[in-house]
Amino acid sequence: MRLSSQHALIPSTVLKLSSHDITMSEQSLQPYATFPEPVPAPIDPENSADELLSVQEKLEHKIAELDLLYNIQRELNQSHDLESLIHSITRKTLKLIQGQSAALTLIEGDQRRMYILNQRSPNGSLLFYTRLLAPGDTIAEQVIQTGKPYLCRHGDCRLVPGPTSCAQGMAIHNMLAVPLFDDEACIGALEVFNLIQPRSEGGAYGISNDDVKILTLIASQIASAVVARSRREAEEKENRLASIGQMISGILHDYKTPFAVISGYMQLMAEADDKDVRKQYAANTIKQFNQINELTRELLLFARGETNILLRNIFIHQFMENVRELLTPELAARNIELVIDLRYRGEIRIDESKIMRAILNLARNAADAMPDGGTFTIGAELENKTLVLRFQDTGSGIDAALHDTLFDSFVTQGKNHGTGLGLAIVQKIVRDHQGEISFESTPGHGTTFSIRIPQP
To answer: Please, what sign has the CA dihedral across residues 80, 212, 208, 22?
Structure first.
């Protein structure tokens, strides 16, 4: 589009930036209509073509700079590992400023991690590699220590120490190094070597002010990415350590019941005179040690996110007798009555040890919700080839704020010894059985968990 006569000297302007067209309309230029029309400069026909080519090349270079900054920011927002990110950014940077080599040096404790991208052959192929070095007499170290850029434009660059040298097959004609900052602290340096000027300026080795500006912007973006990733890794490490501590606490808490049962059987065994009775106590003790081994294995599987269940057919009334034997002493010690209501006494297909673990976790949660005692009821029935287990307590109920996250790891409510792993493990066990778990809770009137496991 071309403007009316009063704007005859202002053509329609279209810029191509990162595949987005920006067009300035006649209306948007209206405020400038009162400006006096500029007097055209005399045009030298002999130089006009060269001047236009030069302007075109500079505009293309500016657009390429904007595209590079846009692409770098987009890559920073994606989940690349740091080495791949640096490789991509340094490659794009060298292409833009027509350099032959680049090096990024980052501080790692008492050492320096150097990422190097070198042109290693006449056809322009690039080699990317990393090194871990002690601080030395290099330009990168000088930039890190002073926090100031370093610029070398002429032949004395052959004396510049650093990652590229004549010994590595590359003569250094010029170089530019800029610092990377995290607030006030310098965390590294970005270097480029053998920059070539645009064709319009002779195409010889040289460094322009624009090169300094664009490299400083790129260094700032890299520094932001490095700092953000370092902080995120530190947080993840801290969270992992906290998770390990909580899991260890959970293991110790889960071991309390079998150890208490073992202690009781050992005391009874010491007082029993009958050989057969002692033999039965010994068998029960061994069963508890097996339970401890199973608890350990289950926690490790949960931590690794693995699924490993062994389904077999058992009679539910026998299984519930084992549950009664294990839970009665622990609940009785807390003034809690255990009630088992079996409306189905036939055969079921489950992983016995894992469902036992789920029941123990639910029972302990229920006991914690009844600090003054109460009743814990386990119900079982078969509905349309689905085993339905219900666990009801007369406790204080679950805070409504936790309903949506109750089965997440490390969610706990008002327990000094709680780890928040119990219900997460229960949910995983149920899902491994292709089942479902749900709950209903009324503050002050207790909670009921329901487990549904399909049966063949």
So the answer is: positive
Q: Which two tokens stand for residue 97?
A: 């400023």
Tokens 């009334």 — which residue?
317
Give the pLDDT confidence of 82-109 residue by residue, as tens digits: 788 888 888 888 887 788 888 899 998 8
7 three-class SS: helix
Amino acid identity, position 397: G
Task: Supply the DSSP string of 188-254, one letter for each residue.
Answer: EEEEEE--B--GGGTS-B---HHHHHHHHHHHHHHHHHHHHHHHHHHHHHHHHHHHHHHHHHHHHHH
End-to-end CA distance of the chain: 75
Distance CA 356, CA 314 (A): 13
Q: How far apart are CA 126 and CA 205, in angstroms?
A: 19
Could you tell me the two tokens for 86? 């640096």
Alpha-carbon distance values, 200 to 30, 50, 61, 99, 113 (Å): 35, 8, 11, 17, 38
Question: Which tokens sit at 391?
Answer: 């666990």
Residue 63: per-residue pLDDT:
74
Tokens 């973006």 map to which residue? 221
169-178 pLDDT, tens digit each: 567 888 899 9
Residue 211 sits at the vertex; the CA angle it makes with 205 and 213, to the nearest 5 degrees, is 160
Contact (CB, 8 A) for 75 and 89:
yes
Which amino acid type is present at position 25?
Answer: S
Segment 186-199, tens digit of pLDDT: 999 999 888 887 65
Q: Are strands 111-119 and 101-108 parallel, antiparallel or unpaired?
A: antiparallel
**Number of Cβ atoms within 10 Å of the Cβ of 286:** 12
Angle at 365 between CA 361 and CA 368, to 5 degrees: 140
Contacts of 368 (CB under 8 A, 6+ apart): 395, 414, 415, 418
